[in-house]
Amino acid sequence: MKTSPQPFYVVGPTGSGKSALAIMLANLWGGEIVNADAFQLYQGLDICTAKPTAAECALAPHHLYGVLSPTELCDAAFFADLAKPVIADIASRGAVPIVVGGSGLYIKALTHGLSPLPSDEGLRRRLSHLTPGERVAWLLARDAHASETVNLKNDRYVTRALEICLLTGKRQSELRKAWKDRVPEYHGIQLAWERDALHERINSRVHAMVAAGLVEEIRKATELSATAEKAIGVPEIREHLQGKVSLPDAIAAIQLATRQYAQRQVKWFRREKGFVPVEIQLGAPMEKLVARAEEVRTAGAGLR
C-alpha cells in the first residue's frame, strides 16, 4: 500500500537561504512549500519579513504566506492548527510537503506537538496571592530539582512550574524532561553558515530591504497585533518615523537585532536532533546543497 509523502523540513537562521532551496526541492520532488515563519504569516509586511516574492511563489506552490490580518494574534498552537490540515492535504495529493522557516517553537509544534502539561487559570489566580518568595519555596518543597530546570528569578516561570506540580502531583522537572526527551520521527536539514558570512548576508539584506521600501511599508502598517509588531524592523523603523533616530541608526539597530535573532535560532535548531546540519560554503553550487537534502530525505524514508 502506497504511503503519503512525509513532510521534509528546511530550517535554519534568518538569511540562510531557506526559501531558495525550498523552491528547488519542490521542483525536484513535486513538492509544495508550507511557511513556518511566524511573521511571514501576516499580510502587509512582505519586505519587513523577507517574504518570497510573487515571482518566487510562481515557481512552486506556496502555502500560509500572508494569510493573517496584521491585527490578528498568533502563537504556536494557532499556527499548528493552520498548518496541519494544509500539510495533510498536500500529502494526500501525493505531493511532498516542504515545511520552511526559522520560528523554532512553531516548527516544534509540528514535529513534537506542544507540551501536554496541564494549566488552570483559577489555580494561577490563587497562587498570585503568595509572594514571589513563597512561590519559590512552595515549588522547591514539591520539586527539589526545580532550580536546575526553572529560572527561580523569573516569577512567571516559577508560577507555571508550581502550577504543574500542584495539578499533576508530580515533579515538573521530570514531566518536562520526559516531553523534551521524546524523539518523534521527522526529517529535514538545518542550514548552517559560518558566523561572519551569515552576518554579512544579514547586513546586506537589511540594506536591500530599505532600498525596496521598508520605511514606507512600516509607515502604512498603522494597526498591528501584539504578535505582528514584534517583527524585527517594525519597532526600529517606527522610532525613525517618530524622529527619535536617524535612518542609518535604525538600519544598524535592525542589523544587530537580526544577527542576535539568528544566533538564537542557530542554538535552538542545534538542539533539535531530527534536523541534519548542512554546512554551506560560499561559492559552492546550489546543486550540492540539493543533493545533500536528497540524501537526508532518502535516509529518512529508509527508516520508515
Describe the structure.
There is one protein chain. This protein has 304 residues and is α/β, with parallel strands linked by helices. It folds into two domains: 8-112 and 184-302, 3-Layer(aba) Sandwich (Rossmann fold); 121-180. Helices cover 53% and strands 9% of the residues. It has 14 helices and six strands. The chain has helices spanning 18-29, 54-57, 76-92, 104-111, 121-127, 132-142, 146-149, 155-168, 172-180, 195-211, 214-220, 234-241, 247-271, 286-302; strands at 8-11, 31-35, 62-63, 96-101, 187-192, 275-279. It has a six-stranded parallel sheet with strand order 3-2-4-1-5-6, with helices on both faces. Strand 2, helix 2 and strand 3 form a beta-alpha-beta unit. The radius of gyration is 21 Å and the shape is globular.
**Rg estimate, integer Å:** 21 Å
The global form is globular
The CATH superfamily of the largest domain appears as P-loop containing nucleotide triphosphate hydrolases
> Low-confidence spans: pLDDT under 50, at least 5 residues?
none
Instruction: Calculate the mean pLDDT score and round it.
Output: 92
Amino- and carboxy-terminal Cα gap: 14 Å
Structural class: alpha/beta
Named CATH architecture of the largest domain? 3-Layer(aba) Sandwich
Q: Widest sheet: strand order?
A: 3-2-4-1-5-6
Taken as a percent bin, the fraction of beta residues is: 5-15%
How many distinct folded domains?
2
Largest sheet: 6 strands, parallel
What is the strand and helix layout of this fold?
Elements: E1 8-11, H1 18-29, E2 31-35, H2 54-57, E3 62-63, H3 76-92, E4 96-101, H4 104-111, H5 121-127, H6 132-142, H7 146-149, H8 155-168, H9 172-180, E5 187-192, H10 195-211, H11 214-220, H12 234-241, H13 247-271, E6 275-279, H14 286-302
Parallel strand pairs: 1-4, 1-5, 2-3, 2-4, 5-6
